[in-house]
Amino acid sequence: MVLDPLALEDAVTLPTYAKPPVALVRGEGTHVWDHEGREYLDFYGGHCVALLGHCPPRVVEAIREQAGEMLFYSNAVYSPVRAEAAQALVDLAPDGLGRAFWCNSGTEANETALKLARSVTGRNRVVAFSEGFHGRTLGSLAATYGDTYHAPYRDVLPETTWVPFGWEGAVEDALAGEDVAALILEPMQSMAGITEARPEFYRAIREICDRTGTVLIFDEVQTGVGRTGTFLYGEHVGVTPDLVSLAKSLGAGVPVGAVLVNDAIAATVKAGDQGTTFGGGMLAMAAVKATLAQLVDDDLMARAVALFARLGDGLAEVDGVTEVRGRGCLIGVSLDRPAKPVAGALREAGVIVGTSGRADTLRLMPPLTTPDADVDDFLGRFADVLNA
To answer: Family assignment (predicted)?
Structure first.
């Protein structure tokens, strides 16, 4: 008897998202296949994870080789592959972000960044931005905007002050009391429909944080690892934060997170201040090392810029598209109609995309390795769906 994977998963797991009736079993490049053999063009990548496409051969081979040597040992011991992955990561980071802390996910990375900020400043309050998303564990949940997320846990969440994204005057007011440990932001707000602020805003908040002794945290869980055309988003606007959280694309499909830490904060951390069992495990480190090597060797950050140009030009010609936003392979597409039914129709047409917190906006997160032919295929199917 063959069990229905959809019914089985619903029966034995807690619900998370409202899932379409699709069980994916295989992936290759920009394509995935479901349990019934149907093929899809994937421009969502499992929440912005598949940076190099599905099952990238270089990463798969690195995992296979590492699995045959040692699957795991905690970071209670030294590990050559962990050291090499960390070196590769800090080499790609801007000057001054010279240390890395390994963990397992984006929310863990944000938790660690917020803890470090509180520790180094001796302060407790956090300032975050309306419409921002930083995770669902308690510390990062407190910095995630919205009563929908907070309602069941409000009494135990750390204090957060909310300010409008893109308004430096509000940041100035919020940090005036000099009791704020950290200012945390997604430099490009993803759930808010892929929105950016003016370049001057990022430079202004850097100056305000410097003046008030506030730690500036960039949550680059989605924007980082070259997805927007530079390794970190801050490079677009000439700003280096004090702490950067990374995850999603970092392992090209293997769960892993990291915090990049500036030298001044790193100098305050002692053995025992932070800890994690699975963070920095050998299998994940092999995946990170291979991912970063391919990112550099194949010049994929430049490819991300080219893909945005090709997609943007094509989308602008489609009736029903009102705006295209974003950078590289993190793209928001606003429509003249609700986005959710369009996403459903695209799935029926064999294309997977994401929606967002904006009812009219789709999110596209294609791999940096997407061939031009797949871009053109996507644009054709997208136009057909909107025309229908």
So the answer is: Belongs to the class-III pyridoxal-phosphate-dependent aminotransferase family.
> What type of residue sits at position 28?
E
* Beta strand ranges found along 288-342 (DSSP E): 321-327, 330-335
Q: Which CATH architecture has domain 5-56+299-387?
A: Alpha-Beta Complex (3.90)
The position carrying tokens 């032919």 is 373
Do the Cβ atoms of 127 and 163 come closer than 8 Å?
A: yes
Instruction: Give per-residue pLDDT as tens, 193-237.
Output: 999 999 999 999 999 999 999 999 999 999 999 999 999 999 999
Q: DSSP assignment, residue 261?
A: E
Q: Rounded to whole angstroms, how far apart are CA atoms 146 and 107?
A: 16
193 dihedral zone (left: phi>0; alpha: psi -120 to 50; beta): left
pTM of the entire predicted model: 0.96
Are 79 and 73 spatial neighbours (Cβ–Cβ below 8 Å)? Answer: yes
The candidate with the shortest Cα–Cα distance to 327, out of 258, 233, 207, 254, is 233
CATH code 3.90.1150.10 region(s) in the chain: 5-56+299-387
Cα 160 → chain centroid: 22
End-to-end CA distance of the chain: 40
Fold of 58-297: Aspartate Aminotransferase; domain 2 (3.40.640)
Per-residue pLDDT at 17: 85
Q: Which two tokens stand for residue 272?
A: 């025992």
Start and end residues for every CATH 3.40.640.10 domain found in the chain:
58-297
Q: What is the mean pLDDT of each run of 10 residues along the chain (388 residues)?
A: 82 90 96 97 97 98 98 95 98 97 98 98 97 95 92 90 97 94 98 97 98 98 98 98 98 98 96 92 98 98 98 97 98 98 98 97 98 98 96
List of residues 6+ apart from 20 with CB closer than 8 A: 344, 347
Q: Residue 224, Cβ neighbours under 10 Å: how many?
A: 30
